[in-house]
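Subject: two folds for Thursday's group meeting

Dear M.,

Sorry for the delay on this. The cluster queue was jammed most of the week, so I only got both jobs back this morning. I'm pasting them in the order they finished. Each block is the input sequence followed by the predicted structure tokens. Could you check whether the formatting survives your parser before we put anything on slides? The first protein is the one we discussed after the seminar.
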Amino acid sequence: MMRGTFGLIYFTLFGLASAAGTCQSSQLLQSIVHREKIDSNQLEEFDSQKQGLAVAPAAPELVEAAVLETMSEHRVKEVLDEIQDEARASLTNCSSSFSTDAPVLATVFDSSYSPLMSSWVQRGLGFGFKAMVIACLDDKSCAEAHLLSAVDPEICVVPYVAKYNHSSRLPTLVGLAKFNIMATLADLGLESLTSEGDVYWFHNPLPLLRAALEMSGRPFAGAPGAKDEEVLNVGFVYSRPTATATGFLKKVVSEWSSILASDAHAGETLMEDQALFNAELALSPTPLVTNLDSTQFAKHMGGPDGDNIDGFRDINCSKTVLVHLTAFPSTASKVALLQGLSNNSITCSDLEKRGQLSSDGRRCEASLVFDVGLPRTGTTSMASFLSLLGFTSYHNTEMNVSFEEFKDCFDGGSCNFYKKRIEIGLGDPSLPVGFEDVPTPFLACSLAKQIPESKLILLTRDAESYVNAAQYMMCHFVLPTCLPVPAGMSEDTEATRFMMKPHVAIQNMVYGQAFSTFCSRVQRYPNLCQEEGKSDLARALWKEAGLTEQWANIQERHDSLVASCVPQGQLLQRTLGEEDLAGAIHSFLGCSGEVPAWPHLNSQA
């Protein structure tokens, strides 16, 4: 196929896209009725309460001021002090309602991990933790945390939001948030357990933690960061409020604030905050830390910082209490795995078996997989399933592909950004990797031709199921970007920039008017998204507007095009939900060993 032909076919199939219209809506948020103490059943309704979510920062005056890279070191230090003072005031106010029969459970979330927030809270409640602190690092995670706190007064939301003029692998204030919360809770005389969003609990760790500190008499307990007895992984730390612990934590907060003020990038570097914490531990005249057993408190040791991409070898399900997913080069594959654990489609046994793989971490003949099914055809489940087979997955926006790069590959030019993504993320192009969701499905023909050693998997749904899923996608993910900016909120927000982002521009181009005119359509007919598009009225209006036929044709034409341009031996085509789907993929990729169960994720529509 000549350069440009694939793009021409796509335009012929889907029609030229017009620029997205800007919607206005008078209702920014669904009303939230205050309820009594939240329980696990109420949390199951949390996702439906997020319908129409419009993000708003908890402290806009600080957010507006905190474009830290443009300030002097002195001014940055002042802004960081303001953020910490606000956090301490919030915690002090919250502490009056905290239960004291268990430690305060604290965590840190940004928008990348916010899909895990409700399940994190639910698990904590299930193990008897009542008082919780959620430090939120951006507008979206703060808004979602406030939804939870609205129905539970013992969930304390503490914003740590600051803007930088560069992209970062880590949110810059994540370390400061952890240290300041631990220090403040200790100063208030409260036990605390800091457990990051990527720490999954199989069992309640508190009995083991308390027993360990009773035996040692030390104020801190945590998962070991290395073999050295005094080295701690700061993603999971139990702290008792002794005078020594409080003084130590305040010193760490002060030191880390000074480092951030002088070098904004320090907060982005993996484990630099942990290195400071452990350097201060080494200076202590008396031992402060009790390190926990590395099998009971296991860590994933794979990724670019480990020697095995299947790094679950410390897991022993008869002993392991929790696992910390410390080294994943892809946030999406980590989040998908955690979602699978939360809904029980992935179990401790699955991870233990994965840790027993051969030392080179390979269990499949294929090393590069492209999921070329459209969004809403099981792409998140595919990411999770591939991770169980030893693959690292890159999902959707983690690709960081510009529209120009996409268009060049789409037209038959270079698709080398995939190889670059592998080299940057894994450091070793021979390690198994998979790609799902935008932009991958629309580049199937180019990828098959340019990377003939790759395997492509096309999952499809029956027409009615796909249309319903597409309606949910547009109403749940795209509709909030059509809403006006809340009063007092900067125009330069994630929501208002959304329609400018490359992955949205890509969908404008390939889906055509079904996508690009959505905002203007729903402005005229708001009931198109009643109950996130799930109500009978919404689906009837969708059909009346011609959208049912448009989206059904989108999938049909996409699937036909992929089947026609990808060589038969390079492509596996299956229907989502069919019997033994996991076995078919396992065999197609040339995998050995037991076939994992197919994880059913993101099944809202």
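Second protein, same layout:
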Amino acid sequence: VADGPPPPQPSLAATAPSGIDEVVRPSADAQLAASKAPLKVKEAPAPTAAEGPGASGEPLVPEFGAEEDFSSEPLEARLSSKDLNRRCSAYVEMSSAMAAADPAAFQLFQQHFDTCLAEALPKGQDASLNALVAYLKHCPDVRPEDVLRLVRRLLQHKSIDKPKMQLLVPPVVCLVAEICECPSVLTEITECVAHLEAATKKLQGFFKKQVAVSIRLVYELLAEFSPHKMHPKLGYLNLVLKYVTDSDRGIREACYSVLVELSCWMGDLSDALKSMEEPQKKELAKRLEALSDEERKRAKPKRSYRGEQAVAESSAPQAAQGKALDQFDLVEAVDVLRKLPKGWHLEGIFSMEKWKDKQEHLQTLSSLLDAPRIQPNEGYVAMTPAFQRLLKTESNLPVVSEAAKCVGLMARGLRKDYERPARQLLSVALGRMHDKSVWKPNILVDRVEQLLWSAPIEFLLEELQQYLTSKSLFVKKEAIGLLLRAPDLPAVQMSCQDLLQRFLPALATMVAPLIDDSDNGVRHQASRLLAVLVDSNAASPEIGPLILDRI
């Protein structure tokens, strides 16, 4: 082995051919120029029309979930397609067409109700039921019999237990109620629940969901249309009271929502809810107490039936809200005469000498008559002559007061079933207006006002004409005072809420002459009533000739 360092190895550049040296190792000047030059990205050539996207046979996945455009395909083909995206595109397109009142769109969509209701996936349900809402909202000639059946089909839908479906169904049902009216829709709901209850084979959890949704729909109808259209006498209160104690929380919440909404419209429901158990009563009271005054306030219905909107727009503001709500139909009638002691009869009072005995005899009846609703009976009509005699001739104030109380309570509890006796007794009671000892609020005045539960307001106006022209200043002032209070009386609110508008000519004719009365008190009362008439009929052209021209 030779001593010394190893011989030097030839470099790659030295052994490579001269042409490759320029490629592998560019010159310093070339490197510097390349570092200063901008970076260039080589672009792929655009595909030709023959190649196109997906020419290799593999489908392209759209970025950011962009949906494919199916608008070039016929609507009929898309609605009948098994492809969900095609059906959804058809629903969206038809919704726009129906909103624009396209007659062909309405006709085509009606033929595919079954397709619409058969959607099983949330995306399809959303698109189809929104299209159904557009159809119900905009179709000008929809037939009630075609859409009423939708209510039961939706309640029996296999996805009704899913939250998405439960959100989509109420707007559809409310629109059906605008077309078919609340009683028909409610009948569909209650009959569906009864059918579900009677089913021998049912999944308990799914059944509970169906019941909860059904009661929730009752709440939606009540909240949207108010008890004027969804009156409790339609029978849904029995359904609510039946399920308010159910073990399922969803059902209980739905029941309480109905009771709270009804209480906000009608006030205290204690008489109607006597059959409800104490824990549920406390829970309802707790929920009502938690509401603010603003949350309790109910002004007017949110929805109306088809055809009513134009009428409501042209009506007076007072009449647009409808009649006041009454709990009379919510409570059961009491058979008072059956509860009277054996041998008791009203005529026996005339053989009694002591006023205390007479009072106690009448109190036996009045204590039983103090009920929200009384079972009609001819026995009350038979008592009329005896009460006429007591009101006309009795001088003892406690006895007159108790007799008048009986008469007023019978009118309140019997309503129109007591109209004929009420007319007769009202005339007799008004005949004692000149007697200051009995014409007091706690003796005759309040009871005369109660008689208006049975006697029509027109009859009172006729009877008061003679007292407005009386020579007694006291009688004239009391007669005008009764007219002033009449519009705000609960009985008149129920029967004739537009009293000041309907009877403007009659009231003005009766009272206007009294502004020239010699007594200041009479003039003052007459002016008050005329001012109320003017304020309530400000837009009426009759105000000038009836009142203003006479002042």
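Two things I noticed about the second structure. Residues 10-65, 310-322 have pLDDT under 50 and may be disordered. The longest helix spans residues 204-229.

Cheers,
T.
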